[in-house]
Amino acid sequence: MDAYVAVEGGQVIEARGRVPGTTNGELVFTTAYTGYEESLTDPSYAEQILTFSYPLIGNYGVREERFESDRVQPKAVVSRELTDDVVDWLDEEGVPAVDHIDTRDLVVDIREEGAMECGIAVGDDVTPQDALDELEECVPMSDHTDIGAQVTVDEPTVYNADGDGADVALVDCGAKGSIQTSLVERGATVHVLPYDATIEDVDAIDPDLLFVSNGPGDPANFDDAIELVDAAVDEYPLAGICLGQQIVAEALGGETEKMAFGHRGVNQPVMDLRTDQVVMTTQNHGYSVAEPGDVLEVTQINVNDDTPEGLESDEHDIITRQYHPEAHPGPHDSLGFFDDVLGMTDAAVDSAAVADD
Fold first, then answer.
1. Cβ pair 345, 327 in contact under 8 A
2. What average pLDDT score do residues 200-217 get?
3. Same domain? 253 vs 166
4. Count of domains observed in the chain
5. pLDDT at 336 > cutoff 80
6. Which domain holds residue 50?
7. Same domain as 213, residue 342
8. Is 106 in the same domain as 133?
9. What local confidence, expressed as pLDDT, does residue 351 receive?
10. Which residues fall within 8 angstroms of residue 269, CB to CB, at 6 or more apart?
11. Catalytic site residues?
């Protein structure tokens, strides 16, 4: 099966076709050695074409219990070699896939040029022009103003309704399932709300904590979530992960910006500025906080480029992280984040009072 990958600037790379189809999107990469099931089902990869720098993808099969959402999220997959198990899965999902590409060389190009627009054509009779035509149709990530609607829940959903811990309102901007699981494992009842939830929706739940999830695209396009955070500050403790950190910053007077090629992988070093401790983290984002504003304090930074990785405000009960403390895949160095944010809630205070008695 023929396959062609056209990248921004006009270069066309010939490949082996594994799953037929034509599509386009922003070409990004992940350096993770494992966790391909989790990466492929991470909603933060919506509208992107995912390149795996590790040469063999699929060497331990495909297990649904590892999925972070109910479907494959990238628009296409590029690899050095894909096993038949992964190809069958992608075929069932209708996601075009190619391999027999020097993906490490392609990753170097992305690091030098930045995340690039890309067109892919796979099939028995496709031509390089088909891939170039797809490239011409590619829409920049910041122009995907409705991307939240693609990845959010259809309607509010409650998990662990009988939990004995905090009530958490989780705004689903493309949440990984492991975030919800991490909260439930700590006894929380999690009320998952659509990305365009209003303060009235949150007030109806009267949660102990408002939590803004990760997700794809430009945080500036999540107007409803920004408005919600602005209305909720000082009404509820606030937490956020990845896109959630960016949305909180935007709502509270900060600024965000697009990165050259983002942070994607499971070995990003993060330093806590208060303790000088460094932990390894899982990350997947193409935007970052440029300025935190006057309300939020930068408490953690990326060791490689000094970008903000943690924002906090003791006065307003806010804790956010740019990386993924729940990992999946990746190291569990920062799982304590969930204990910290739940510790801000009235439920934690009441629990502590009972323990003291």
1. no
2. 98
3. yes
4. 2
5. yes
6. 2-139
7. yes
8. yes
9. 47
10. 278, 279, 280, 281, 302, 303, 304
11. 242, 324, 326
